[in-house]
Amino acid sequence: MTGPFVVCCDLDGVVWRGEHALPGAADAVARLRAAGLRVVFLTNNSSATPGDVVARLGAAGVDATPADVAGSAEAAAAVLAGSVGPGATVLTCAGAGVVEACRARGLRTTDVGPADAVVVGWHRDFDFERLRRAADVVRTGVPYVATNLDPTYPASRGLLPGAGALVAAVTAAGGRPPVVAGKPHPPTVELVRERFGTRGVVVGDRPSTDGALAAALGWPFALVLSGIAGSAGEEPVPDPSPAFVAADLAALAGPLVEAFAPDS
Asked: What are the residue ranges spanned by the domains of the chain?
């Protein structure tokens, strides 16, 4: 697949943090696009549908279409479809993004057992009953998929428990580990290549996922310090440091244009 050089941006901690858009992010996206780069968005947060993400990007001043958005929900649905096939029933211990992605693959969804597979992703409604239901299905031996293992997400104030925290509970109660679909695992590597091509740079705030995805793709990694990594975050800046490091997306835009714009 050929096409424009792709700037593949994470969302949480890069474009926004919690409910608030990060200063300068929209202008940075506009600058990158004006320089001839394609900006797309890849998130491990599976709770929202692509339409919801597009709407939120618009509210933050960033024009986008569903073709510009991908994530762990889509990767997880692809894994499930390959494991159980169209028409199978999946217990979705997850948010609307996972439900929509599964249905788009011809899978039926439920939040109670029995089921032919189970998927766990981040959602705010996780509680003891959802844990019990998911673990019951996991123990039957059917395919078990996690959207991702991120332990936290950056919020407006501090950090929120991430999908990895929910998956850990289901795994402990269910007695076996999942197949993981999101960054930096192979299903997302395949998704990026299929959707966005083979030339690009990964922009993210978490070296353990975004940086590892860049390495798996063979792309440069551009680290922003507006989310998880850095002195205020929970992951250190790697040593040696990534190809690009900046305080935020606004500060990163210039170096990316200089390095990758077609006419630079």
From this structure: 6-71+183-260, 72-180
Q: Which fold has domain 72-180?
A: Rossmann fold (3.40.50)
| Distance between CA atoms of residues 235 and 185, nearest Å | 19
For domain 6-71+183-260, give the fold: Rossmann fold (3.40.50)
- Per the CB < 8 A criterion, the answer to whether 238 and 203 are in contact is no
Give pLDDT tens digits for 49-107.
999 999 999 999 999 999 999 999 999 999 999 999 899 999 999 999 999 999 999 99
Distance set, CA 222 to CA 5, 41, 261 (Å): 14, 14, 15
- Distances in whole angstroms, Cα of residue 1 to Cα of each of 5, 38, 202: 11, 14, 18
What secondary structure does DSSP assign to the chain, as a single string? ---SPEEEE-SBTTTEETTEEPTTHHHHHHHHHHTTPEEEEEES--SS-HHHHHHHHHHTT----GGGEEEHHHHHHHHHHHHH-TT-EEEEES-HHHHHHHHHTT-EEESSS--SEEEE---TT--HHHHHHHHHHHTTT--EEES---SEEE-SSSEEE-HHHHHHHHHHHHTSPPEE-STTSHHHHHHHHHHH-S-EEEEES-IIIIIHHHHHHT--EEEESSSSBSTTSSBPPPSSPPSEEESSHHHHHHHHHHHH-TT-
Q: pLDDT tens digits, residue range 19-39? A: 899 999 999 999 999 999 999
Domains 6-71+183-260 and 72-180 share a fold: yes
Q: Would you name the residues annotated as active-site residues?
A: 10, 12
